[in-house]
Amino acid sequence: MKHSYKQIVLNMSEEELRDLLHGEYLRKLARYRLTDESLQRKYGLNFEEFEERNIVAENDFSWDVESDAQEWEAAIDGIRTCLRKLEELKVGYR
User: Fold this and answer.
1) What are 28-53's pLDDT values in tens digits?
2) Are 47 and 39 in contact (CB under 8 A)?
3) What values do phi and psi take at 53, rounded to 5?
């Protein structure tokens, strides 16, 4: 018998759902941190320094650098979001 995703989630215990979310946030956090670390190595700066020095303009708004800037900004935002969500899950677990 085939179940819909909604039905599967509805049949999960609160602990199973929390564990699933926890694992997903950890997976995303690892991916975002890897992107952050990779771009820090590439530019020799952290994201804040990259922005302050306006590296995109310094590189004549090249597509490659702008693309890196967008990816990096998304990674930094993702890190913050995942950390916040993990903290929310921890608070709900107590």
Assistant:
1) 999 999 999 999 999 999 999 999 99
2) yes
3) -80, -5
